[in-house]
Input
Amino acid sequence: MEISYPPRIQLARLPTPLQPLDRITEKFSTPHGGPRIWVKRDDLTETAMSGNKLRKLEFVAGQAVAQGCDTLITCGGVQSNHCRTTALVGARLGMRVQLILRGELDGIPDGNLLVDQLAGASTAFYPPRQYFEELPELFSHWQEFYAQRGHKAFPIPTGASDGLGIWGYIAASEELLADCSARGFVPEHIVCATGSGGTQAGLTLGCQLLASTARVTGYAVCDNADYFQSKVRADVRHWSALTKSDIDENTLNINVNADYIGPGYALAEEPVYRAIADIASLEGLLLDPVYTGKAFFGLLQELHRGSYRDCKNLVFVHTGGQFGLFPHREKFPFLL
Ligand SMILES: *Cc1c(COP(=O)(O)O)cnc(C)c1O
Output
């Protein structure tokens, strides 16, 4: 099927590489075999703007500019990769950026927050409870604040996960399937970390639109399986409404693995940190404890259990997150 895309501003360096992880494949193969593991390097979409959010923001920025907006407002945790990417995209396009951040500024800015500040984004911090209870009001407050000063602000939801942002991963599905085909295979499985659901929604919908047989699985890093089942459906429903498509979100094959969330969002136990170190030393690939490290750790457990034994090729989408690794520096005492 020919997909026709809405306005898009090119920001990412595409296509990102698709690489085999043969030392990991060998180390984690079991007596009953297992797939060749590949990684789609979406951590290489750009340097500072790296990661999955940049693909979504190409379409979000396209829409914001088309609507004559000069300001972007978005939200997330203090170490949000999405906020950091938005801050840099705004600077790149000469737009103001207002970040609504969950948590407080304690001590010296680090990781993503340091980059937000370098990029000149305005930051407002809210205690988690107020953030969760009042997020829509906080967006209205800041939209109004900019309107009163003669600016037009475009609101971007958490992770740019909605019917607009998921275009980024519909396009990425097309790219990924072409990469695989150029390497001479059809992937049976595509795996990613899932946090606000948009990456998974885009990949799931993209594979369906392209009639791919690949099964997309999101490894949840927070919430639970029911949450992501309905979040992915909601994003696709929104997409269908925006595009006037007749895709029925109830026909989608949505797969969530919620067994490796651990203690909660941005909280991980030692095996995850050890897996991050193993993978860095084995393959030169840097994962983060909030998203990709947690998801990849889960994937390795499932490989070990033989869950993918009938699969020949599995693609892990590396969604980025490197800046979020450094604030966790004290979690690696075993390296000393
Ligand atoms: C946001 C993010 C994810 C999750 O993507 P969603 O589309 O929000 O589900 C995964 N990995 C990294 C590094 C992220 O920043």
